[in-house]
Design a protein that fits this description.
Strand order of the largest sheet: 1-2
Oligomer: single chain
Radius of gyration: 19 Å
Distance between the termini: 63 Å
Order of helices and strands: EEHHHHHHHHH
Shape: globular
Largest sheet: 2 strands, antiparallel
Strand content: under 5%
Number of strands: 2
Length: about 190
């Protein structure tokens, strides 16, 4: 149905309520970015967090539940050939520049809203454009991911804002400990 914002997902002949506020979905995105979680654990977090009553979904239907969940997270878009691409956005790292850009599109502070459907939030996100800070950062990330040459002003911006433009690698606790140990050895 045109203009419909889903609040349930159909699995078999049963409708299951889902969490639809963008904040809930951003928590799921955080799980996918958590280096401490395996892919399977991140999927489990997604299912448990998204479905209001995940445990009532029969085990035999949980693969379909995961597929429907991803369909919802992707705002109903279906891509036939999803190829791995370089990560361009880190929802946690980028929130300081992301929310002002979304607020500009919305014409208000969206974090002050009690509720906003994930698809509405993503609609605002997709309309970010122009010469705002987030747009500049994203343009530079996209060019660098494709191996394209940055224009002179982009190179200068990148040098001045490297911490903002580079997506930080997240390490597991074990990897972080090993990194610290190596630093101590080579001082």
């Amino acid at each position: 149905m045109i203009g419909y914002l889903p609040e349930t997902l159909s699995i078999g002949s049963q409708e299951y309520g889902i969490a639809t506020d963008y904040r809930d979905i951003l928590v799921i995105m955080e799980a996918y970015n958590d280096p401490e979680l395996s892919k399977e654990e991140a999927v489990l977090v997604m299912l448990r967090f998204l479905y209001d009553d995940f445990l009532s979904i029969p085990v035999k239907d949980r693969q379909v539940a995961a597929e429907k969940a991803i369909w919802f997270l992707d705002c109903g878009q279906v891509e036939d050939n999803k190829k791995a691409s370089k990560k361009l956005i880190d929802w946690d790292q980028d929130q300081a520049v992301l929310f002002p850009a979304i607020n500009k599109v919305a014409g208000r502070e969206v974090r002050a809203d009690d509720y906003m459907h994930w698809w509405t939030f993503m609609g605002l996100f997709m309309e970010i454009g122009g010469d705002g800070l987030f747009s500049q950062v994203l343009t530079i990330r996209q060019k660098m991911a494709k191996g394209k040459k940055l224009e002179k002003w982009e190179q200068e911006f990148y040098r001045s804002n490297k911490a903002l433009c580079d997506i930080k690698t997240r390490y597991t606790q074990e990897e972080q400990t090993e990194k610290e140990h190596l630093k101590q050895i080579f001082r």
